[in-house]
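User: Working on a comparison across species. This one is FAD-binding oxidoreductase from Undibacterium parvum. Can you predict its structure so I can line it up against the others?
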Amino acid sequence: MSPFLHLCQQTIGANYVLSEQDEMLTYLTDQRQREVGKALAVLSPANSEEVAALVRLCAEHQIAIVPQGGNTGLVLGSIPDQSGNSIVLSLKRLKRIRKIDAANNTMTVEAGCLLAEVQAAAQGADRLYPLSLASEGSCTIGGNLATNAGGTAVLRYGNARELCLGLEVVTAAGEIWDGLRALRKDNTGYDLRDLFIGSEGTLGIITAAVIKLFPIPKSEVTALIALADVNAALGLLSLVQEHTGASLTGFELFSDFCLQLVHKHFAELPKIFSRSHPQYVLIELSSSETQEHTRTQLENLLASALQSGLILDVVIANSLSQAAAIWKFRELISSAQAREGKNIKHDISIPVSQIATFISATDTLLQTAFPACRMVCFGHLGDGNLHYNVSPPAHQHANDFLLAQAQVNRIVHDSVHRHHGSISAEHGIGALKKEEILLYKSPLEIRLMQAIKEALDPHQLMNPGKVIGVRHETTSLD
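Assistant: Here's the predicted structure for FAD-binding oxidoreductase from Undibacterium parvum:
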């Protein structure tokens, strides 16, 4: 064993230093099973002080660090590269809920707490932590903040950045910054908190956070609505926002092909509508009003939309179990697509007003380049975040289609850029898109990001090879 790993054992205990390949494998493999990295070891500290001590050791020995939470990311941001010169620093043992302040509507949690555990702790204090993701049983708060995770309730509550008031961070020098302030107003200089949120562990390691809590809604009403096209969905969004205001919690769009895939691969699910429709929207309202008031409000609104022809059909859940069943159709789209076969995924955001135009234009471009390719388009329409995925034609082998991934990505991302959008809405950049962002950010923006990286991590040891790639000449589309 190397002197470095021996020192790590002395710092956190031999049981928490893994160096055998079979022991490390789950930490080295990305969530979609596409890549397996290499590492000197996986280190699992128990608290912020041990994290800081390990970072100082790594700095002394010039060992790169890949911070890792639940390893549920989709852009190769939480696994090491193939060099084998880095360590994975797992934060799973930092799982204490340090404080719940119900009067201040805040909770102080460590980075390794599972999102589902934080939701349950908030519930136990008669409060709501509204961040909701499909991976909430395995993703961690630290990972959520490091990637600025979104989810299904962003429309009302905001993403992870907006749900965080303060952070504790171990810097690249191994110092602990205590920024755990439970304040909603603090105008005392640069906002370091926002700098670390969304930085994917490239500037420092988030070890704890103060997060916002909310009163638990007294009522929730869920409906699934059939529409003729995306323009109708946008019209419905405007109508619902006008009449329900902050009660609108979720507004999810998915196409008929998405629904067909779910029924194909989860045949046990019941049919919701007697016939197919081009597009569907899942709406959720939550309110401090009574269940009867909220349901009547949505019923009246949708009855008017149905009469005017804006929507084609609607089903409103009569119970929590029916609401959960309706949500399953939305939540199982990714799983259904995975069962259908390999595909090319895009996590993008577009100004809401441009979404219908974007989908129409980009579908046409892809069908021209790849006739009969199948579009699996779904997402959080209310905040402009689409999961715009492309599956191969039914007659083509997926591996053959994946050879064209760079061309597909260029068509999609160029169209996103033309529509003033972003090529990463909620999954981050990681290693997967670090070169891609160079095409769509100005040279100035890249230089500013690099300057921040160099200032906070001068030895380039924090999650190297992620987020910031090497700039090439004349790559910007601006």
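For your comparison, note: The first helix runs from residue 3 to 12.

User: Helpful, thanks.
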